[in-house]
Fold SAM-dependent methyltransferase.
Amino acid sequence: MDSKQFIQQELNTQEGYATWAASYDQEDNALIALEEAFVDQLLEQVTYHKVLDVGTGTGRYALKLARKGAKVTALDQSPEMLAVAQKAAQAEQLPIDFQLGSLNNDLAYARDEFDLLISALMLCHVQDIQHAITEFARVVKVGGHLLITDFHPMSVENGWRTQFVQTGVKYLLPTMPHSVNDYLNALTNAGLTIQQLIELPVKDVPAGYMPAEIMHANADQLFCLLILAQK
């Protein structure tokens, strides 16, 4: 996904985000640039007051939703990423409830607790997405929504990985080879109704976020997956 040559190093997800946290928000991330505008459009279609952001990272959506007056709980397994998010929330005096936790365990929330659950660019790091999505469905209220965004399986199948570069080293994180049907089946098995499925190609990445030769060579490759579902 990058035309330059770097020393490569594999990291597990925990190590990767611990290393990436300090620079995560400063980088030009092509996948985030592509994803965010469409998430904003989808969020305009749903109503919410109480929100759970699973895999909040540095708090991209937790901060955005809290600014709109939502009561936000934000969960992540990386203390380093959460620290960045907490600092940003404190700077804006946003009362977000940040919690450390992993999807290896059941979510520590009651059934039918949230109007909206958002999980952005995270399930590609989770091996058992059926368990994760079943837990998502459990804690969302009847009539509430689940919004998932992720690295598109076509890109993963073509060898693209979650990655970042620091001081001449390209760090590669585990990126699971889920199929689109894996996501859709997990959602329907959990009792959710799929309302929108959006698949965005590389050619839709905003200018300046990806080397031109990479964009040209992979223009029609699907890069970002977005799914809006309702309970």
Residues 147 and 228 are 5 Å apart (CA to CA).
